[in-house]
Design brief:
Layout (H helix, E strand, L loop, with lengths): L2 E6 L15 H16 L6 E4 L3 H8 L5 E3 L8 H8 L17 H18 L9 H17 L6 E6 L1 H11 L6 H7 L6 E7 L2 E9 L4 E2 L2 E2 L5
Parallel strand pairs: 1-4, 2-3, 2-4
Antiparallel strand pairs: 1-5, 5-6, 7-8
Length: about 220
């Protein structure tokens, strides 16, 4: 049966004017990811990523031709926090934003994500939760349908997309996205199997490639 590896992008630049740039640690993570996939003997028939720079720069380092599909892009954090958050904030720092640690930002984001999800299809954000979930599922379905038996598809996306898909495939409540997103590790791998009965989650958030005797490269932001 075909398989799909969903990979979260490497660490970007939280709190900078341009979040969508891999950090020095992120570039180290990409090297570790490529080595880990090579050691596992992964040969991807298709490599796909969203159109965000952090996603493409992670995917491009893995070798092979990369197809860009914007349906794999992350949710708009700034819009969600504007409509459902308690303070003005975002992954990128804008003038007027309060100084927030990564932990503080995550707590505020978790609450805003809950409001976004609860608002459903009629929410005030430019992309309501129902639309986000639907386009992620459509992207996954199209990729699964393009793979032949024994082939592997490799996707570089973001924590929200991967969390939403994992929750949907496991039949969990939509709010399970928040829990998955909260512990999503940069360059971690979520493994899916594509069978006659549908797509099944095999493992979530694998990151052994980031841990070695010389130290850990694990990051969450």
């Amino acid at each position: 049966m075909p398989g799909i590896l969903l990979i979260r992008h490497a660490q970007a630049s939280f709190g900078a004017a341009d979040y969508d740039v891999l950090s020095d640690r992120g570039r180290e993570q990409v090297v570790a990811l490529a080595d880990g996939l090579r050691e596992r003997g992964v040969r991807a028939a298709r490599v796909v990523c969203g159109s965000l720079r952090r996603q493409h720069d992670t995917a491009a380092a893995l070798g092979g031709e990369v197809a860009v599909d914007p349906r794999w892009n992350e949710y708009d954090d700034r819009s969600i926090l504007e409509h459902h958050g308690t303070v003005p904030a975002g992954l990128e720092h804008h003038t007027g934003d309060p100084p927030l640690s990564s932990r503080q930002f995550q707590e505020i984001l978790n609450g805003a994500l809950g409001g976004w999800i609860d608002a459903g299809a009629g929410g005030p954000c430019g992309e309501p939760w129902a639309s986000f979930r639907a386009r992620a599922l459509a992207a996954l379905s199209d990729l699964a349908g393009s793979l032949d038996s024994g082939q592997t598809g490799l996707v570089v996306s973001s924590g929200g997309v991967i969390g939403a898909l994992t929750a949907a495939l496991m039949g969990l409540p939509d709010r399970a996205l928040i829990a998955f997103n909260h512990v999503s590790i940069n360059t971690a791998i979520t493994k899916l199997a594509v069978g006659r009965g549908g797509i099944t989650v095999i493992s979530v958030n694998e990151h052994a490639h980031l841990e070695s005797a010389s130290g850990s490269l694990v990051t969450y932001r």
